[in-house]
Amino acid sequence: MTSVNRILYSILDNIDEGIVILDEDSEILLWNSHMECLTHINGKQAINSCIYEVIPGLNKGYFKETINCALNDGRKMFFSAAMHKDLLNNNKNLNLKVSRIEKDNLKFVLMEFIDVTNLFLRIDQLKKYVNELYILNKELKEKERTINKLAYYDGLTGVANRVLFYKIADKFCINSKRSGSLLGLMFIDVDKFKCINDTYGHIKGDDVLVHVAKILKKSTRKGDIVARFGGDEFLILLPFVKNYHDCEIVASRITNSNKVLLCGSDEIKISLSIGISILSNDSNDMDELVLQADRAMYKAKSQGGNGYYSFVEC
């Protein structure tokens, strides 16, 4: 063996890949040190043996075809660890490259077994990390939704609270003045709510408020905004109405709805007083509109309750 050949052999023997060289009969001519580490098979045992006997995992039609094509056509092939697991019947993830080398009109097959186990472990760790980030992000979004709900929705009835109402109402107010469209508002108060609380208790009083919120949502149009203003007071924003009559149609549905809540053997008859106002070009802002609806509501209450009154009549 010349000094150059010894150097080349030393390089192949010490390279950080499993290197196997086969002759035209698929017998092993070279089995380097890294291959010994991967397989725990000594090079002396492997050399001059058939590759399919030493590595039974390669004793498959497509591997044999690959080796034949490499010898005859010089075709290079690559087998990924992801698609071909347990090439050496161990726990290693190995990529395999198959190619042809020639010397003095002789053909040989070069097989390179590349250990990518650590890469697969890193990929698995990254997948786990990404999955954990996804779960964390999902939890954060859920918490954000909960926080937003607490910030903008009434915890008892589930309708919008005063903060969200004004946030939405101010936008509709600006749009109404720009476009010249009318914006209606209802101020609703539960008649004799203090008496209900004193008679049936605060828990049942809360049930009444929840029931009222359901009635209001059921009676309003799609796009109307129902909000709890505070205590036993509710607001309904009615965008794009044509006149007071449009608002009165909704108010009529509310007053004519079934407003009876069972309390044991008793029935709590709920009545609502409703005041209606409309934002026009002469109105200043939403606060003024609320005050107008509030005044109209008290007018309805003064007439016995369970009815509605429009500010234009005040």
UniProtKB/TrEMBL annotation:
Domain of life, source organism: Bacteria
Coiled-coil portions: 84-146
Record GO terms (molecular function): diguanylate cyclase activity
Residues annotated as domain PAS: 4-74
Keyword Iron-sulfur: no
InterPro entries with a match to the protein in the record: DGC-Regulatory_Protein, GGDEF_dom, Nucleotide_cyclase, PAS, PAS-like_dom_sf, PAS_fold, Rev_trsase/Diguanyl_cyclase
Pfam families in the cross-refs: GGDEF (PF00990), PAS (PF00989)
GO annotation terms (biological process): regulation of DNA-templated transcription
EC number: 2.7.7.65
Cited NCBIfam families: GGDEF (TIGR00254)
The protein's name: Putative diguanylate cyclase YdaM
Species assigned in the record: Clostridium liquoris
Recorded name of the encoding gene: ydaM_2
